[in-house]
Prior knowledge:
It is built from three helices and no strands. It is mainly alpha-helical and 94 residues long.
Amino acid sequence: MCKSVSENLVKSRNYAVAFANGGVTLIILIISRLSLLTVIICTLSVFLSSLIIGWICDKPLYQLISDRHRGEISTQWESDNIEFISEEHENLPN
């Protein structure tokens, strides 16, 4: 998978989780008898905290994505060497 697609999926997942947490919180707070300002502040707090915590927790994931793509480049280079070595092996007398 392309690096930019992987990063976009991670960002989209963070937003989806934050919206879901905010939505659940909104429903719970609307059911309870609180003022509208309290419901809005609590919902926005849960949404932003979910987004920030998701972003912080996904920093290692971004690092793994970039490391994986670095490994793919080096693997391709190593496979060229393996093909070269196998061609030399074929030319050896039995």
